[in-house]
Structure formats: C-alpha cells, structure tokens
Amino acid sequence: MKAAASAEARRPRRPSRRVIRAVTLDCWGTLFIDGPGSDERYQRQRLTGIQAVLAGVGVTATPAQLERAYAAAGRRLGALWQVHRDIAVREHVGAILRGLDAALPARLSAETMAAVIRAYTSPALAVPPAVDPGARVALETLAAAGVALAVVSNAMRTPGEVLRKILDQAGLLACFRALIFSDEIGIRKPAPGIFVRALKELDVPPAAAVHVGDDPILDVEGARDMGMRVIQVIADGRATAPVKPDAVIRHLGELPAALNRLR
Predict the structure, then answer these.
(1) I want to staple 228 with a disulfide (CB 3.0 to 4.6 A). Which of 55, 110, 223, 249 is the partner?
(2) How far apart are CA 260 and CA 3, in angstroms?
(3) Order of all β-strands in the sheet with 247-249
(4) Cα R_g (the chain), whole angstroms
C-alpha cells in the first residue's frame, strides 16, 4: 500500500486547467476590422471642421497652416506614444491651435474650444470604423456564460469618449463591464498599467484573464508580460511574431470556441 502511494506521489501531474473569468479586448484591428492607421483617414474632415469653427469667431487659418499644425501635433503624440504615454483629446486640440498661434487657445471661449474639440473628434461618428460582424454574438455568448468583458485599447486621435459611442451604435457597449482607453488614463499598451486598471475594475487576477488583440507587441507581448493568456486576431490565422499567442483566430466569431480550448 505504501509502495503504491509512493508511486502515485512520484507520478507527474497534469497542470490544472485555469478557469477563464475575464476577457479583455482591443478596439482597432480587433473589435473593429479597421486597424489603427485607418483613424488618420479622418484628417481632412477634422481640419475642415476646425477651420469652420475658427472662421465663425473671426480666426483665419488656411488649409496649409492647419495641415502643418496637425502634423506637428502628430509628432508630439508619436513621441509620447513611443514611451507608452497618452494625453487627453483636449491636449491634442490645444497643440494644433498653438501650432497656428501660441496664444490662440487662451483667446478662445470655452464654448468655442468645445466646438473645436467636437470638430476634431466627431468624424469617426459620421463614418465609423467597420465592426467585426461576429463580435456581438460572440460577446453576448461570453457574457451569458458569466465571463466578465472589458475593452483595453489604445486610442488614436479618436478618443475613448467617441469610441464608446461607436461601440454603442454597434450594439456592443452593454456587453462590457469596463472600458479602459489610453487617452483617459494616460497609459498605452504594452505598458502593464493599462491592463492592471482593467483587471482591477473586473476584480480578476491576470492568471484568470485572456486578452484578445491583433498587435504582436501591444497586445501579445503586453498581455503576456502581465501574466495573462493571449488570443491574437489575424485575418490569415497565422502568428509570426517571436512571442507566440496562446491561440490565433481570424475573427471574433471564432472567439468562444478558442476560449473553450484554453479552459
């Protein structure tokens, strides 16, 4: 009897399967079919709108001047994003206005500044990014099974406030218990702080959570460094990055089955 017990103790045990209590999802390239670069397609509408608002209060800005100011603000954003930091959309707009005239933001009324911000942020509402057609059924399936869902996404020039409205228009917003956008917390993926914030709001440890995203660095490496498992969304179904995800799906319609295989 003792020999049998000893043999049982020496026998290698299979690792226990971890229960998945939460799933976090990226926006651009994941919930949205359109990748983050597509956010720049709204540049013309943004600048036309800003020009009209400024003209309405007697401030003249030519298209060329606006384009230079927009580009300069973009370089500042790029430098911040490179070190995984972010700023509120009001600061985007302030940088553009200062590019036109350093004193301009201080001269504008609160009402005019709000109108400029709307001109900058609203084009994505008029022509929203394409949403993965399988997202709603997949997310509702997971929510019904008791999985807590959150968005963990870097914002581009379109802020989290507008991304919420786009998700609502697509019928997805109600699926999420938490929505974490980089422009609202000042941290961008792959920095761990943005994942920490989401997991804290969901009250779930990293080992019980899976992140879903398209980017091999921001999503795969970022979530893996946090101790989360990762499912990468790639249209051709093949992961090529050095850090391999735990699974690959071509679209979100495949997500529930992929999660079942990880359980």
Answers:
(1) 223
(2) 38
(3) 178-181, 148-153, 22-25, 209-213, 229-233, 247-249
(4) 22
pLDDT in the model for residue 177: 97
E-strand ranges in the chain read 22-25, 148-153, 178-181, 209-213, 229-233, 247-249
* Alpha carbon 48 to chain centroid, angstroms: 26
Q: Which residues 6+ apart lie within 8 Å of 248 measured at CB?
A: 231, 232, 233, 234, 237, 238, 239
Angle, CA of 134, 25 and 154, to the nearest 5°: 125
Q: Name residues whose C-beta falls within 8 Å of residue 77's C-beta, 6 or more positions apart in sequence.
A: 87, 92, 95, 157
Please say if the pLDDT value at position 243 is more than 80.
yes
Contacts of 87 (CB under 8 A, 6+ apart): 77, 80, 183, 186
Q: What is the mean pLDDT of residues 110-139?
A: 97
CA atoms within 13 A on the CB side of 25: 28
Q: What's this model's pTM, rounded to 2 decimal places?
A: 0.90
The one-letter amino acid code at 52 reads: A
